[in-house]
Every structure is written in structure tokens, then in C-alpha cells.
Amino acid sequence: MAVAEHEFLKPVVVQLVDSFNQGGSERQALQLTRLLSGSSKFEVCLASLSPDGILRTTINDLPLGEVPSFPLNSFYDQNAIQQLRRFVRWLKSVNAAVLHTHDFYTNVFGMAGGALARVPVRVASMRETEGMRSRAQQQAQQIAYSLAHHVVANSKAVSEKLKHDGIRADKITVVYNGLDLSRLVSHAERSDVLSSFNLPDSRPFVTIVANMRLAVKDYPMFLRAAKIVKNHVPNIGFLLAGEGELTESLRAMAYELTIADSIFFLGRCERIADLLSISTVCVLSSKAEGFSNSILEYMAAGRPVVATDVGGAREAIVEGETGYLVRAGDHEQMATRIIELLKQPAVARSMGEQGQKVAAAKFSLDTQLAQIEDLYNRLLSKKNVR
Asked: What is residue 8's predicted lDDT score, i.e. its pLDDT?
């Protein structure tokens, strides 16, 4: 009975995710849900705006009970009002002490619902810098932040953006994305991985992992750089792991650049460890980022990184030691750095090894969990909720 009473008294923390699709924000939110579920400090509940997505199975083993969804078509229709009412009733029914939202849509919907339900501690998240939201969306997000007691930024660059937008510094905490290092270890033979991806052998590969839905990922920059790289390293292959409505236009561009025979569109890749194990250099060409999960995955897999100097990239990459930073949109500079690494394999290996050490030391799951637990506890103490 004493144990049951102790369990009952633990503060209830609600994590609200947009969906279970395989995106960076979704993976991070579900990873945090798993970490908190393994903690003894909180009772954890999970809810979503959409029940769909392949990541749903990754939390089936957690003791979360019902995982309700509150599907939206728009923020401005009758359905949104109905779903908001449902959400408010549910928050009250689980006696939520903390509500944590993780992206634009959950911030807007969740902070409104949390305020109406009078959840004692409301924590929003920010993972973006520039180039991703319309003016109307920015205004909606500002309202959400005004309803939040605190905002978690996943990089210093994002924190600076928040302050620039008028959020008080004492209302912001930087918590870097945590990385499950074990997920980036491949035990497969190179030949088997190549065969499974239907790739040719006896050539190095330059890899990019990014969605093909958003123009901000700037795949055209990557393809223009690939054109230059191929002129210097004719047997090179380029692996593009991502899916989205821009795919066909990128295929067409590869043909226009006469590099289609070296470009391999892999679609959504769930075997990231295997993919990175056959990669020589890993790249990110984004025009804007918050803090890229892909960069962390590249580093954890022991691969040198060439990335655009946007968002929190320089908070992960140590210039000249774990990789190189290049100007956004400068495909020639990107190509130059990729060529340097391809032609200096010892340097590339050393950078990859150093990057692996940095990833393990700075972006561990234990560090992420400790910082989030400390934040929740501090905010709950201010509200006298225990």
C-alpha cells in the first residue's frame, strides 16, 4: 500500500507529440517519453494530435496506459474547438502537473489547452531558427509562448532566436537533443549492407539524411556540390536518404546535372546505423536548422561531417576537428571540403573518431534526462506542486 501511495503522489507529466511519423521532433519527444518512463520521479502520460506513424510501435512496451489523439484539420474550425475541449477534459482527468509540447502545432494547441485546464507547469519547445514559419504561424507561436511557463530550446542558436523574438532569457533553458549511441552501431558486413540497399561496391559514398518535404533542407545545393565532387572523384556515389514531395524534382535536377548515375535515392531509411556504416563523408546542406539530429547521428557513427553553418551546427561540429562548416548556399565550398576528406582518408577517419567522442560526451541520454528532470522539478517547486 505504501508503494501504491508513493506512485500516486508522483507528479503527472504529459508529453504531447504531433504524430508518430519519423521526424526529428517526433523521435526526440518519444525518446524523452521513454527516458522519463524509466525514471522514478514522475508518472508519464502521452498524447498526440495524430495517432498515425511508424514510430507508434516504439512505445508500445511503455506503461503509458491510454494514448489519446486529438486530430486537427485546422486551428480555425469547429473540429479544433471540439478537440481542444476534449484535450482540456483529458488533462484534468489525468491530473496533469506538467505539460510538455514539442513543436509548432503541439505548442499552439497544447499551450492553449494547458492554460484552459490550468495545468500548473506548461513547457513549450523550440527547435527552429529561421525560414520555416509564415508570419501568421510566428504570431500563433508567440501566443503559445505567452501561455507557457518555460520554453526549452535545443541549441544556443535557437535560444538566441527566442530572445530576439522577445522571450525573456530566464524563461528559456537549453537542453541539447539526446542521442542513443547504441542505435548508431552497425554489426552488419559492408557487403551485406550494400546488397540490402541495392548499391554497387568498390566506391566511396557521400551521404545526406534529410526530408524531401521542405525546401529549407536545400538538396539542390547538395546536388550542385555533388556535380563538382564527381568531376574530381569520378567513382563517387551519393546517397540521399529522405522522402517527400520534392523527390521527383530532385531526380530531374540530377539528370540535368548529368550526375544521375551517381545519385541513389533511398527514400525513408530506418536502418540509419547500416547506412552510415558504408558512408565515407556525411553532409547537411540546410538553409536553416534548429539543432540537427542528422549531424549528431553522423558524429555518433564516427563519420566526418560537412554541414552548412546554420542553427546549432557549430555547437556540435568542432571546425577542422570533427568536420567542416560551410556557408549556406555555397555549393563550391561544400564540394571543396568533401573532396578534401575523400582524398585524405586518414584525416577523415580521425575526424570521425573525434566526432564520436564529442557526441558521447556532450549529447548523451543521461545528460538530457537529468536536465529535463531538473527543469520540471524547479518549475514544480515554484508552483508548490509535488
From this structure: 53
State how many domains the chain has: 2
Judgement on whether residues 140 and 254 belong to the same structural domain of the protein: no
Each residue's pLDDT tens digit, 222-263: 999 999 999 999 999 999 999 999 999 999 999 999 999 999
Query: Given 3-state DSSP classes, what are the helix, strand and coil percentages for the chain, each rounded to the nearest 5?
Result: 50, 15, 35
SS3 of residue 188 by DSSP: coil
Question: 93, 104 in Cβ contact below 8 A?
Answer: no
Q: Which triple of cell numbers denotes residue 84?
A: 481542444
- CATH assignment at residue 287: 3.40.50.2000
Higher-pLDDT residue of 180 and 308 is 308
What would the pLDDT profile of 337-353 be if each residue is shown by its tens digit?
A: 999 999 999 999 999 99
Residues 199 and 164 in one domain: no
Residue 225's alpha-carbon distances to 122, 195, 256, in angstroms, are: 44, 27, 14
Sole residue written with cell 539542390: 220
Judgement on whether residues 372 and 292 belong to the same structural domain of the protein: no
Angstrom distance (rounded) from CA 340 to CA 325: 13
The answer, yes or no, to whether residue 142 has pLDDT greater than 80, is yes
